[in-house]
Design brief:
Blueprint: H1 3-8, E1 17-18, E2 31-33, E3 39-44, H2 45-49, E4 61-67, E5 70-80, H3 84-102, E6 112-120, H4 130-138, E7 140-144, E8 147-149
Parallel strand pairs: 2-8, 5-6, 6-7
Antiparallel strand pairs: 1-3, 3-4, 4-5
Helix pairs in contact: 3-4
């Protein structure tokens, strides 16, 4: 199966797959990719699952990048980074994502993956702070205002 097929087979995401970074809309400018030909597509998780999980702290996006025969998923949260409270909100969204991936999102769980937080607004979140260390221990990387994805040749 492909990333596109696995998205289509995931409850709530049947029609959510988009080519390239299209699912990110205006936030696509916050993500760069070394080799755009390797993009396997993107999904607006938050927007697609709003009706199924209206009160949940939903994660924002997933982007697939194909490196040879292996597709890696970049789970991306675009969220303000102006206080320690922001990190706790991102953690809540991550905990929701983990639960969702264990259940309805299980088709997307077997991929290699990374979790990234892109900060918005005036960033006062401090590098090396207790909050950043806590997120790092969960596997969430703070990208600052822009995430640059390094990729190899296309498949």
């Amino acid at each position: 199966m492909s990333f596109k097929d696995d998205v289509a087979d995931t409850p709530g995401l049947h029609d959510a797959y988009h080519k390239g970074l299209q699912a990110l809309g205006a936030n696509a400018t916050k993500v760069g990719i070394a080799n755009p030909r390797t993009l396997a597509g993107s999904v607006d998780i938050d927007g697609s699952l709003r009706g199924h999980h209206p009160d949940a702290p939903r994660w924002d996006y997933v982007v697939g990048v194909a490196n040879g025969r292996v597709t890696k998923l970049y789970w991306i949260e675009v969220h303000e980074a102006n206080s320690g409270r922001s990190s706790y909100e991102v953690e809540r969204k991550f905990r929701w994502l983990e639960e969702w991936l264990s259940n309805d999102g299980s088709r997307l769980q077997g991929y290699a993956r990374e979790f990234h937080w892109i900060g918005t607004g005036t960033i006062t979140f401090r590098r090396g702070s207790l909050q950043e260390r806590r997120l790092t221990s969960l596997g969430i990387k703070f990208a600052g205002k822009h995430l640059q994805i390094q990729s190899q040749g296309g498949s």
